[in-house]
Amino acid sequence: MTTGRTPAETRLDLEDIEEQGIPPGRHTAEGLLEEVVEVEAEEPAQEEDSAHSDTRSLVKNRDPRGVNKYLKVTFEDVIAEPPSVRSFDKVWLWSHALFEVSRLWCYRLISLLLALPVSLVAGILFAVFSCLHIWLIMPFIQLFLINMHWVQTVWGSVLDIAIAPFFKSMGKCCGSIYVRLARD
Description:
The protein has 5 helices and no strands.
C-alpha cells in the first residue's frame, strides 16, 4: 500500500476532513506542529516596556551559542522505514504526529517540574565556584607565584650553569653529522 511518496508529503485521507473546515496545510504532521508553534509564537498587539522586550529576545533565541545543536532530533532520525519494508501510510503519519506531539509535551512537562529546581541548584553551584575561584584560588595562586620568584631565579641559574653547556656541546658534536639518503 505504498504510494512512493515520502512520509512528509503524505496527507491524511480522512473522509470528513474537508467537511470539518480544517485548512489543507493542517493534514500533515508538520502542519499540526506548525499550527502549535504559530499559536505559541503570536505576539500581543500592544507594545510592552523595555524590560519585557529584553526578555522577549531571550524567549525567541534560547540557544544563541548553539550549545545543544546536536539535540535536534526529528522523527526520521529515530524511526526510518527502508523502501523495501513499509507500514501503512496512515500508520506512518499518525505515529509521526504522535512522536512529535508526545516529545514536545513530555519535554514541556518535565521541564515544568525540573527547570526551576535545576536552575536554582546550578545558580548556587556557579555562585559558590565563582566565589571560591575569585576569593580563594586566584589569591593563593598569586601568593604562590610571588613567593616562588626565587625558585624561578635559582632554576634559571641551574639551567644556565649546568644543563645548557652540556646540550650546547652535544649540539656542536652532533652538528657536523650529515645524513644523506640515496636510492639504489
